[in-house]
Specification:
The structure is a homodimer. By secondary structure, chain A is of the alpha/beta class. Chain A is built from 10 helices and 14 strands. In chain A, strand 2 and strand 3 form a beta hairpin.
Chain lengths: 384, 384
C-alpha cells in the first residue's frame, strides 16, 4: 500500500482533449447571472475508470496550472505540474485511480477565458469576459464530469486555488464528493494576500502596453507588468530559508560582484528568468481574473448559510499545510479545519514540515506524499 | 529624565539649508575610485550646539527619507518623517541635543543624485551617475560635519538603511562615534530581501517609459513602475497583523463588494494611494541606486578586516529590532549584535514588541521611545 520510490513511474506521453461543454443554446450561467457560451474545456485523464466510478479523482489546479498535471506532451524532461504526485505507484496512484484534470474556466491553456473569441464581436473578450467565482469554476468541473458520465467522485484534490475549489465544491454540493483533499489553501485571503494580488494586477493594468486589456494582435502587450507580477509572486511561493539555501547572496556566473544596477545576484537572475519564461505560457488577462477570483473567495462569510450546508455535508476532508508556507500559512488551514470541525464534518489535518514554502505542494516532500497516499488508500478501501 | 507625553512638543517651522561640499577642484572620491563633483547636500539642524560639541546627534535616513526629519516646512499637519522621535522633550531631545539631518548622496530631495545635472554634459546624470556604497554615504555625512566644524559626535542614529550607515561609520572610523543607534537594520540583506529589491528595480527599469534612465524632461517617466515598486515595498513595511487590523477584508467606501477588477478592498485603495503619492516626491533613478546600495552592503564579509576594525572601535551601540518586522527581522539585528559582541564592542540590544512591522521605527511605540530616550540620557551624562 502507498507509494514507495521503487514503484513510482511517470505516465509517459499523455494527450490533452477538448470538449465544448456549453453552447449558445445551453450557456454557462454564472453566479453573477451573466451567461457565457461557448465554453470549451481542455482536460486530460489518467488511469482506468472502475465499474461504478468508485475510483474517480478530480484534480483542481492552482493559479497558473493547466490540464497537463501528469505525464508529458512529448518531452519527458518537462512533465506535468503535479507529476511528482500523480502516476503509477505515486500517491495519486493511476494504477488504481482514474484521474481527471482540466484547465480552469478563465484560463489560457485550452479552456475558454479572456483570450478566447467573444462570438458577439468576433474579437477576444479581454476585460469584457465576465467576472466569475470559485463556485463557477466548480460548476464547469461538474459539467465535465456529467459530460463524461461520471456519477460519483471518490476525491477532489487541489493545492492553493485548487484547494479552494475543493472546499467550495463540498459546500455547494454537499453530497457529491466522498473526499476533499485541500492542500495549502485558505477560506479567506488576508489583507496581505490581497495586497500582493493588488500589486500584481497594478503591475499589469498600469503597464502602458496593457491597452485596457485589448492587447491581443496588437504586437505588444503588458509583458513587463506580467513578468513583474510573476517575479513578485515567486518570492511568496518560496520560504525565506529556501531562498537562502538556494541562492544566498551568491553572484551569477562569477565570484566577485559586478557592482552595477543590472542582474548580479543569482536570486535576481532566477527571478528574471521566471518572469520571462512565464510570458510564453500565460495570458495577462487570465492572471487578472484568476487572482481576483481568489480575493473574493470567502465561503464561510455567512454563518447561517455555512451551517445549513455543512449540516448536509457528506465529504470527509484531508487538510494539509506546510510549516514554512507564508503565502497561505498554517493559520489559514486551521481556520478551515476549525469551521469544518465545528459543524461535525470529519477532517484529518496535518501541518507538514517542509523547507520549501508554498511551493511544497508541487514537490516531492516525503511526509506529504505518504499522507496523501495513505488517505487515498483508505478512501479507496472504504469505497469498495 | 526621558520623554513623557506631557512635555513632547514639535519643533514647529524649520528650514532646509544647502551647501556645496565638493567641487571640481576637490571632488568626492568614491569607494569605486570614481570622482563626483559638484556635490551639494541639503540638511537641517535642530537644537543648540553645546560648547565642545558634546551634544551632537547625526540622523541618517532610510531609503526614501529626506533632510526634514523633524518640525515642518509650513504645514504642521505634515511633519518631518521622524518628528515622533525628535523634538523638545522627545527621545532625541532638542532641548538638550544638537541634531543634524541631511539628505543622502544619490537622493532626490536637495542632495546631488541621478536627477542632478552632470557638469560634463549639462544634462541630468541618469544612469551615468556613479554607483556608490554605504561607506560613500558616510563619507558625505562626515564632510558635512567637517564643514560645520563639528569635531565630536555623541551619537549617530538611523533606522533601516539609516542604521546601516551608522554601523558602517563605526567600522570605517572606529574612534569617531561615541554611540551608534541602529534600529531595524541589517549587516547583510538576505536572498529574500534582495529579491524584493530586484523586483522593484525590474518594475522601474522594464517600464517602457524608463528610457534607460533618461526620462527627465521628456514628459514621461517610469511612473507606473515606480508606483508598483512602492506598493510592493509598502507590503513589506507592515506586518501581516497590522494589515489585518488596519484593513482586513473591508471594502472601500461601501459595504458590499463591487465585484470587478478595479480597486475594491480598502487595502488596494491604500496601496494605490501610496504608490501615486510617492511619485510626487521621489525620483525613480534614486530608488534604483539606493536599493542597490543596500543589496551590496556586507560590512562583515571579510572577517580579518572586521577584526582589525572592531578591535579599535570606540563606539557603544544600541541595537533595536521589532518583533513583527519581517523586512529586517530580529535575526538580522541579532547577527549584528553577535558580531559586535564577539569583538568586545559594547552593545545594548532590545527586541521591541510592536504590531507595526518595519514601519515601527517611524511610529510612537512607547517601549522603543523609552529605550532610545534612556540610552541618550545616559550617553549625554557620560559625555559631560
Amino acid at each position: 500500500m502507498g507509494a514507495t520510490d521503487d514503484t513510482r513511474r511517470s505516465l509517459g506521453l499523455v494527450e490533452t482533449q477538448r470538449v465544448v461543454l456549453y453552447t449558445e443554446d445551453d450557456p454557462l450561467v454564472l453566479d453573477s447571472g451573466e451567461t457565457l457560451a461557448p465554453v470549451e474545456v481542455a482536460y486530460e485523464t489518467y488511469g482506468e475508470r472502475a465499474p461504478g466510478d468508485g475510483n474517480v479523482v478530480v484534480v483542481c489546479h492552482a493559479l497558473t496550472g493547466d490540464a497537463n498535471a501528469a505525464g508529458h506532451h512529448g518531452d519527458p524532461t518537462r512533465p506535468g505540474w503535479w507529476d511528482t504526485l500523480i502516476g503509477p505507484g505515486k500517491p495519486v496512484d493511476t494504477d488504481r485511480l482514474f484521474v481527471l484534470s482540466s484547465n480552469l474556466l478563465g484560463g489560457c491553456q485550452g479552456t475558454t477565458g479572456p483570450s478566447s473569441t467573444d462570438p458577439a464581436t468576433g474579437e477576444p473578450y479581454g476585460l469584457r469576459f465576465p467576472l466569475f467565482t470559485v463556485s463557477d469554476l466548480v460548476r464547469v468541473q461538474r459539467r465535465l464530469l456529467a459530460h463524461l458520465g461520471v456519477e460519483r467522485v471518490l476525491a477532489a484534490i487541489g493545492g492553493s486555488l485548487g484547494g479552494m475549489q475543493v472546499l467550495q465544491w463540498a459546500l455547494d454540493h454537499p453530497d457529491e464528493l466522498n473526499n476533499g483533499i485541500v492542500v495549502c489553501a485558505t477560506a479567506r485571503l488576508s489583507a496581505q494576500n490581497i495586497a500582493f494580488s493588488a500589486v500584481a494586477r497594478a503591475a499589469i493594468m498600469n503597464d502602458p502596453d496593457f491597452q485596457d486589456g485589448d492587447y491581443y494582435g496588437t504586437g505588444r502587450g503588458p509583458d513587463h507588468g506580467l513578468s513583474v507580477a510573476r517575479m513578485m509572486a515567486h518570492i511568496t511561493y518560496l520560504s525565506e530559508e529556501s531562498m537562502r539555501q538556494k541562492f544566498g547572496r551568491r553572484i551569477q556566473d562569477r565570484d566577485e560582484p559586478r557592482f552595477d544596477l543590472g542582474v548580479d545576484f543569482q536570486v535576481e537572475s532566477y527571478l528574471q528568468h521566471q518572469g520571462k519564461a512565464f510570458l510564453d505560457r500565460f495570458d495577462a488577462n487570465s492572471y487578472l481574473y484568476l487572482t481576483r477570483v481568489m480575493d473574493y473567495f470567502d465561503p464561510f462569510a455567512d454563518p447561517t448559510r455555512v451551517r445549513e450546508r455543512l449540516a448536509r455535508c457528506r465529504t470527509r476532508f484531508l487538510v494539509l499545510s506546510f510549516d514554512t508556507d507564508w503565502r497561505f500559512d498554517t493559520s489559514h488551514s486551521k481556520q478551515v479545519v476549525r469551521t469544518l470541525t465545528a459543524h461535525r464534518v470529519p477532517v484529518t489535518f496535518r501541518e507538514i514540515a517542509s523547507p520549501h514554502g508554498h511551493d511544497s505542494f508541487l514537490l516531492e516532500v516525503p511526509e506529504y506524499h505518504r499522507t496523501v497516499a495513505a488517505y487515498l488508500d483508505r478512501a479507496l478501501a472504504e469505497a469498495r
